[in-house]
Write a structure and sequence with these properties.
Blueprint: E1 2-6, E2 10-12, E3 24-25, E4 29-33, E5 36-41, E6 50-53, E7 57-61, E8 63-65, H1 86-92, H2 94-97, H3 103-118, E9 122-129, H4 140-151, E10 154-159, H5 181-195, E11 204-208, H6 213-216, H7 219-232, E12 235-240, H8 244-254, H9 258-264, E13 272-276, H10 282-291, E14 294-297, H11 299-304, H12 312-318, E15 322-324, H13 337-354, H14 374-381, H15 383-389, E16 405-409, H16 424-427, E17 433-439, E18 442-446, H17 455-473
Parallel strand pairs: 1-6, 2-7, 8-9, 9-10, 10-11, 11-12, 12-13, 13-14, 14-15
Antiparallel strand pairs: 1-4, 2-3, 4-5, 7-16, 16-17, 17-18
Length: 474
């Protein structure tokens, strides 16, 4: 099947912006053949071809979200955790409600989160799912793969879990009890055999992702899980250095920095990426760059929890692979990729600006508006994400790449008056409507509608579920 996206006002490619990797294409047309982008340029329609009119629209690669907790889509704005920093928030919200998730609620939460992402133009979702415990009555992994397939999304399961708990979990229900290392590895092997596809544009992947390597597993188990993952051809992922507590814990327990600790236990490398990395020393950034260990930057969650602003500019300049993740909706009530990249663009500028000093105090610059460009943020959220996920034929508008394409209409007043329409989705934020969204060549959104999705019914189901969960936890 041939599809022609015709007469786009602008095309962002996801490239890094160098002469040999441009961030924009002149177009104005893109031809899709089957699952693949076949041509870009001034193209003539061919007989029988479906034509998408992209007049006045901007075209982006579909976003690649590299860190999420989809089950938290029913935990937005919990008052007990709304003004709490990371550690008290964990106890107040995700741990307090985790036992409330049965199969039906887990599936509903996953569906809400995936649809929210789709409506922002995202077609690749990496979910760090840690809803696993001994005797669990449903298969949360199977539900996630099933829901993604129904919506036509590329899904990467970051299989979380823990073999030990933090003290704050110790008195909570059985849904928080740890697994044994043997059962954890056995399930990873099962999932890899059932779902994992190593091809360069796979629609299903599995990743070894203990919830937080510093707290969730032992040092010996870190080496063991890394060895198993590499034997199976899986990548590795976890949380790291989200707040200063990681630094305190690593130094107290292991007399080194969190990144150095991970390096000593085989958890650095080009097949590894971490969520957050907000609190880093210069030598840690150098170590990440040297080993090509990546980051999933989650600026909205980091802001919501008051954790800080990750040094992404410094990491990118050093050569650390950068990607974007929305994190869980329990700490980010705007868990879509447009909101996330808008925040990423602003936050890096603000971080640099905070270092500015008056000239009489030795300062040499006024502000940080050069800390991140829109084109660069698009790169982080598309090709950058595909890179850390190990999907080399995903995340770009380029010939031969998977046809994951978002066609945005800039038809809201917030986009009126733009001198450069290409920057609209990132610089203006909001939610530009989708004329079309393609995932591996399949059109999954038409005229801003996801076929088969009743948003009002989804809203009613979510309200009912939240009401019941609040009643259960008291």
């Amino acid at each position: 099947m041939s599809i022609l996206i015709r007469n786009a006002a602008a095309i962002m490619t996801g490239g890094a912006g160098s002469p040999d990797d441009p961030s924009r294409a002149a177009g104005p047309d893109i031809r899709i053949e089957g699952e693949t982008i076949q041509a870009i340029g001034a193209l003539v329609p061919i007989a029988g071809e479906t034509v998408i009119d992209a007049t006045d629209c901007v075209v982006y690669p579909a976003w690649v979200n590299t860190h999420h907790h989809l089950f938290q889509s029913l935990l937005k704005g919990d008052t007990a955790g709304l003004n709490a920093s990371l550690t008290p928030w964990l106890a107040a919200t995700p741990y307090r409600f985790r036992a409330s998730f049965d199969e039906k609620r887990f599936r509903l939460a996953a569906r809400i989160g995936m649809i929210e992402l789709m409506r922002s133009g995202c077609t690749t979702v990496a979910d760090h799912n840690y809803v696993y415990y001994p005797g669990m009555p449903f298969d949360s992994s199977a539900i996630l793969f099933d829901e993604a397939e129904k919506l036509g999304l590329r899904f990467v399961l970051l299989r979380g879990g823990a073999t030990k708990t933090r003290q704050l979990e110790a008195e909570l229900p059985s849904a928080l009890r740890p697994e044994s290392i043997d059962s954890y590895i056995a399930d990873i092997e099962r999932l890899a055999a059932t779902y994992h596809d190593a091809s360069p544009r796979a629609m299903r992947r599995v990743v070894m992702a203990p919830t937080t390597v510093l707290y969730s597993i032992s040092p010996a188990e870190m080496r063991q899980t890394a060895a198993v993952a590499r034997r199976l051809g899986l990548r590795l992922h976890s949380h790291l250095s989200e707040t200063v507590s990681y630094q305190d814990s690593a130094h107290a327990m292991h007399a080194c920095s969190p990144v150095a600790f991970c390096g000593e236990h085989d958890w650095l490398g080009s097949d590894v990426w971490y969520a957050h990395l907000v609190k880093l020393d210069a030598d840690e950034i150098a170590m990440l760059a040297q080993t090509r260990t990546g980051v999933a930057h989650c600026p909205q969650s980091n802001g919501r929890l008051g954790s800080g602003i990750a040094p992404i500019r410094e990491m990118a300049d050093a050569g650390v692979p950068v990607s974007i993740g929305v994190d869980g909706a329990a700490s980010n009530e705007a868990a879509d990729m447009i909101s996330e990249v808008h925040m990423a663009w602003l936050a890096q500028r603000a971080r640099r600006g905070m270092a500015a000093q008056a000239v009489y105090r030795g300062g040499s610059f006024e502000g940080g508006a050069d800390a991140a460009t829109v084109d660069e943020v698009v790169h982080w959220g598309t090709a950058g994400g595909a890179n850390v996920l190990g999907l080399p034929e995903v995340g770009r508008i380029a010939v031969g790449f998977s046809a994951d394409v978002a066609v945005y209409r800039l038809d809201d007043p917030r986009y009126f008056g733009l001198h450069d329409p290409a920057i609209g989705p990132v610089a203006s934020g909001g939610r530009p409507s989708l004329a079309a969204l393609f995932s591996a060549g399949m059109q999954v959104v038409r005229d801003d509608v996801i076929e088969g999705v009743d948003l009002q019914e989804l809203r009613r189901e979510s309200m009912s579920a939240v009401k019941a969960m609040l009643a259960e936890v008291g």
